[in-house]
Amino acid sequence: LPSDLSDLPRWLPFTILFLLLQTKLPDYYEVWMDIACNLTHLIESRTLRDVVQKMPELSLHHLHSHRELRLAHLALGVITMGYVWQEGQMAPAQVLPRNLAVPYCLLSQKLGLPPILVYADVVLANWKLKDPNGNIEVIFSLPGGETCSGFIIVSMLVEKAAGPGIMVCTSTVPIFHISTLRLAPVVYVTAHVDPTIFHATLRIFLSGWRDNPMLPNGLVYEDISDEPVLLSGGSAGQSSSIQCFDALLCVRHYDETAAFLARMREYMPAPHQRLIHSLSGSLRDFIMPCSNPDLCRSYNSCITALLDLRNYHINTVAKYVLVPAHHARLSGCPLGGVGMALDSRGAGGSNIMGFLKTVRNNTQKALIAEPQDM
Ligand code: HEM
């Protein structure tokens, strides 16, 4: 376990679900909050870039708690995505202006996060209670209306469902309790996320500036670095929960697949990275030679749960990325070949289906032969 247990509340993704109810920043940051809250409107009226350019350059001195820092990172993250992609994929901004770039990079440095919207922002830190019954809603939305909020909330519910599993990972409770992990919330995607809107709108605002043909050289953060910076967009590949399960259950990935997942870890909060690292052990090697059928079955049921999730996810990606891309091509979408640049590649520039199937197959390979009951 990470040695610094004072990290604990920040350490566990699911804990953030219960603790990060910060929805306001000190008044000094009103301008950031106003822009982030009105993002969709400002993008649709194509005025966001003008508004951002006129924004004063704020200092970070009035941000005190970790929660305030995280909320500010989320706010500047959505503003940055809106600024870069306001005009669509065809005309991304090449330079992030100083009044946004400087506080955003300083804040990112403070938090140990990259200066781009990450999963830990847009999902883990982007929710608030809607009513006393525990219903939730997003704090900031990107364009895409209910599809956007639905996508964020479904991902958040997956994190919440993963919570008890993470709890087991960090305790000495017998492993078979992990098989109680239920990732059923992912099925809500189809009810709340419209494939066409996801594909044509939301996906663009989550795109980054690494391996992205629309911003091949990256983005210049004015007065931070003269050289453009390359950063991947937001992806649930940055979910620390799923990587925690892989680590604990010893699901091994290789070559480019492992490299991509490792790169996604760099977009997670440092305490989450440390947790994943500390869980990577030899549980499977311990179970393998053991002849206890219950233990083997419990282990396999965990792997099967992960496998089911990944199979479901592959079908979802086909429905939300590949099918709409095909329709757009058939209908002679005005974006032509250029706008489709993201279709066969994920947010990280990976070949989507090949990558996801390899991850799934590696999960399957972790299954172990169960000994006969004694
Ligand atoms: C409309 C719904 C979704 C779509 C279209 C989608 C799309 C993708 C794509 C294209 C990738 C490839 C890597 C990348 O481009 O970054 C990916 C990876 C991944 N996604 Fe999703 N995703 C969806 C929902 C979710 C949800 C709700 C979760 C749960 C938190 C999730 C978890 C993951 C994980 C963990 C990976 C890394 C590969 C793995 O470990 O299996 N995705 N997703």
UniProtKB/TrEMBL annotation:
Iron listed as a keyword: yes
GO biological process: 'de novo' NAD+ biosynthetic process from L-tryptophan; L-tryptophan catabolic process to kynurenine
A GO CC term assigned to this protein in UniProt: cytoplasm
Keyword entries, A-Z: Heme, Iron, Metal-binding, Tryptophan catabolism
Heme in keyword set: yes
A molecular function GO annotation: indoleamine 2,3-dioxygenase activity
Residues annotated to bind heme b: H313
InterPro entries, A to Z: Indolamine_dOase, Trp/Indoleamine_2_3_dOase-like
Protein family per UniProt: Belongs to the indoleamine 2,3-dioxygenase family.
Identification of the protein by name: Indoleamine 2,3-dioxygenase 1
